[in-house]
Design brief:
The chain is α+β, with helices and mostly antiparallel strands. The protein is built from 2 helices and 6 strands; from the N terminus they run βαβββββα. It has helices at 21-40, 117-120, and strands at 2-7, 45-50, 54-55, 64-74, 78-87, 90-101. Strands 1, 2, 3, 4, 5 and 6 form a 6-stranded antiparallel sheet that branches. A hairpin with a 2-residue loop joins strand 5 (78-87) and strand 6 (90-101). It is elongated and about 45 Å long.
Length: 125
């Protein structure tokens, strides 16, 4: 499922002239959180884990950077899934991540999957 698109601007570039990795990680965490909130049906989620970050090819100024989330794996209090970053049809970055639902005190809490869009249809369709 496509979550968001960003335009790589001059202010997003690192000293090598391509997208600064920290900027990509910022966009990635935000896109993944949006997906987790939608998929879990929870308003409060926190990032638990990002797996190995694989920068496959550079992203350059003026390219449209698209974020896709796929392969959701629900847990009792969490959701794990893949995140792909594409420019056009080409994957430039990929990772897996886990988000955890939390209560008003920041403690993990069970997800009511019966309220989730994942119970009625796959979010990555």
């Amino acid at each position: 499922m496509k979550i968001t698109t960003h335009l790589c601007k001059t202010s997003d570039l690192g000293t090598s002239g391509n997208l600064f990795g920290g900027q990509l990680m910022y966009w990635l965490d935000e896109a993944a959180a949006v997906y987790a909130i939608r998929a879990m049906g929870e308003r409060k989620v926190v990032t638990k884990r990002f797996s190995e970050a694989v920068f496959q090819k550079p992203i350059y100024q003026d390219e449209l950077v698209e974020f896709y989330c796929t392969d959701p794996k629900p847990g009792n209090t969490s959701l794990s899934f893949r995140v792909l970053v594409k420019v056009g049809d080409e994957i430039r970055f990929q990772t897996e991540c886990t988000f955890v639902a939390v209560d008003e005190h920041g403690r993990k809490k069970p997800v009511d999957w019966s309220k989730s869009p994942l119970t009625n249809r796959r979010l990555d369709d």
